[in-house]
Specification:
This protein is an alpha+beta fold. It has helices at about 15-30, 45-50, 60-65, 75-80, 85-95, 115-125, 180-185, 205-215, 250-265, 280-290, 295-305, 310-315, 320-325, 325-335, 390-419; strands at about 10-15, 30-35, 55-60, 100, 105-110, 130-135, 135-140, 145-150, 155, 160-165, 190-195, 200, 215-225, 230-240, 245, 270-275, 335-340, 340-345, 350-355, 360, 365, 370-375. The protein has two domains: about 10-195 and about 350-419, 3-Layer(bba) Sandwich (FAD/NAD(P)-binding domain); about 200-345, no CATH class. It is about 40% helix and about 25% strand. The chain has a seven-stranded antiparallel β-sheet. The protein has a five-stranded parallel β-sheet with strand order 6-2-1-10-22, with helices on one face. α4 (about 75-80) crosses α15. The structure holds flavin-adenine dinucleotide. Flavin-adenine dinucleotide binds near residues 14, 137, 385 and 390.
Length: about 425
């Protein structure tokens, strides 16, 4: 690609999984790689992902895996074809960490942790010559060079190519604060606004309900709602009532559709099926069964097992009259309306939607800034939790690394022909 006298220098800015995978690919391809990160150490969000049990990828059939990226599936597909879920697992194993497939199909490192994996990866990267520069915050460009804020003041860096892997806009304290958006916009790059993905939502719970039930999980419920496209959807799972709303895996899984619905209509109504395993007719039968002197609450508990937060939700979301009407109550147990007011703030979300738009990219290179490549969550895609996020970050990091190498080879060839 280049002569040994003129090493091809690449600056990778952002040391999350996307940037590190780009660095790995570039170093393997013979480039001279410097990784700059604003934080004191790399991979902070990657490490956090490991705290609650890291899903590194998902083991479902590939034909089911790719559509999880919804509107961005077609754009991501070539990257995933080159480095998909099976490759992710093989790569993890290559770093000396075993994986297992959980009952949900999610793939975890055997000890569920990210730290041993990151340690082994950084060791391998350093061995292959990658140099790390911590507390180097990228501030944009000055006279064509990269401008970095360091503990010793501002620094300008010249590189033959740049990979930006700056992450999305959630959990800013871990480094990915979305401050890059105006920097790229000023360079003419079209960026879709960063919005929360895999996020909770606000609900106007009464003080009475909130103080009694905040933190309680709703195990095995189903949610039905209608997307902004008018299509109805239903999904079963679990979520948690919070002091001011709802969060948890089932809510995260539906969050893109719910967020879009709120953007379109100002509010999203979800319908909770509190007993998804019981048919509506059976629920109606049990609710309307004579209860003698028993209170309605103890009737619901003994006949249908409805208690705690589920019982609280019925009292919270129904009027006194609706609650006292057995026919209405029976239907509401299967279809309880809850109004979601707004997504929780971006900083609290697991990930971001929005980012650099695909039509501004040539592969992973910015059309508005030749020689500048992007990878990871800062590109405009979103996916549910379950390993899809990290897989696409790694796959796009690898793609960016390969694109840089191919671009470098092309530039070198053109320069030679011009001589
Ligand atoms: C609580 C939590 C749990 C998660 N669990 C999982 C999971 O189990 N499975 C899964 O697939 N995904 C999970 N994710 C998501 C996953 O961690 C992210 O999608 C992934 O880390 C994004 O990778 P990235 O490389 O694009 O960006 P990041 O990991 O965010 O890295 C970006 C890097 O860029 C640096 N940076 C930003 N701006 C600048 C700047 N101006 N100058 C220099 N450096 C800068 C940051 O310091 C950071 O190191 C989780 C996320 C959270 C918050």
């Amino acid at each position: 690609m280049q002569s040994s006298l003129t090493p091809f220098r690449v600056a990778v800015i952002g040391g999350g999984p996307a940037g590190l995978m780009a660095a790995q690919t570039l170093a393997q391809g013979g480039a001279c790689v410097d990784v700059y990160d604003a934080m004191a150490s790399v991979g902070r969000k990657f490490l956090l992902a490991g705290r609650g049990g890291m899903n590194i990828t998902h083991a479902e059939p590939y034909a089911d895996f790719v559509p999880r990226y919804a509107g961005a599936a077609a754009a991501l597909r070539p990257m995933l074809d080159a480095f998909g879920p099976a490759d992710v697992r093989e790569w993890v194993h290559g770093l000396g960490v075993e994986t297992f497939v959980g009952t949900s199909g999610r793939v975890f490192p055997t000890d569920m942790k990210a730290a041993p994996l990151l340690r082994a990866w950084l060791h391998r990267l350093r061995e292959s010559g990658v140099r790390f520069h911590m507390r180097h915050r990228w501030l944009g460009w000055r006279d064509g060079a990269l401008l970095l804020q360091t503990p010793d003041g501002e620094l300008t860096v010249h590189a033959d190519a740049v990979v930006l892997a700056l992450g999305g806009g959630s959990w800013a304290r871990l480094g990915s604060d979305g401050a890059w958006v105006p920097l790229l916009a000023a360079r003419g790059v079209d960026v879709a606004p960063l919005v929360p993905a895999n996020c909770g939502f606000d609900v106007a719970w009464s003080e009475h309900f909130s103080s009694r039930h905040a933190g309680e999980p709703l195990t095995t419920v189903a949610i039905t709602s209608t997307g902004a496209d008018g299509k109805s959807f239903r999904k079963q799972g679990q979520f948690v009532v919070t002091a001011g709303g709802v969060e948890g895996s089932l809510i995260y899984a539906l969050s893109a559709a719910l967020r879009e619905q709120i953007a379109a209509d100002g509010v999203a109504t979800i319908y909770l099926d509190l007993l998804p395993d019981l048919p509506a007719a059976r629920v109606a039968e049990e609710v309307t069964r004579p209860r003698g002197a028993r209170s309605l609450a103890s009737h619901l508990q003994s006949r249908l097992g409805i208690k705690g937060v589920k019982a609280g939700l019925l009292r919270e979301c129904l009027s006194k009259e609706q609650y006292a009407d057995p026919d209405y109550l029976g239907r509401a147990i299967k279809m309880l309306p809850v109004r979601l007011l707004r997504p929780r703030p971006l900083d609290e979300a697991i990930s971001s939607a929005g980012g650099v738009r695909w039509d501004g990219l040539d592969g992973t290179m910015l059309k508005a800034a030749p020689g500048v490549f992007v990878a990871g969550e800062m590109i405009d895609w979103e996916a549910p939790t379950g390993g899809y996020l990290l897989t696409a970050c790694l796959a796009s990091g690898l793609a960016a690394g390969r694109d840089v190498l191919a671009w470098g080879a092309r530039c070198t060839g053109e320069a030679r022909r011009a001589d």
